[in-house]
Give the backbone structure.
Amino acid sequence: MKNEIELALSTLKVSKDARNKVLPGEYDIDTVVHIAGTLKVGADVPTHQVNTVPWQKLAEVLFCKLNGVTIESVLREALAEDFSAGDFKDEAGKAMEALVGKTRKVRKGAVSGSLTVMEQG
């Protein structure tokens, strides 16, 4: 039960009103509180951590394989509003899936609480 209590405490939000009423400083706290309510813990879900793909490194490797004229052409097409992969779309899609596929992770389920905190004594 200790883990559930710690998790429930992590869901508590500090009201702006409470923060506005406390002046900057250091305060000693010694109190007992009663917490009641419901804690909801969602199921873990698979996800892709796309931000872990080294996009800059990938671009550097690709640009090293090209000549200057081709690099300029690639940049022009990539920045164009109407870019279409055309005939290479399937191959590009497979390459992207291979990169993103390596980033699969399991994300812990969301935690939410509907709790009431009451000071005792």
User: Anything to note?
Assistant: Residues 2-45+105-120 form one domain.
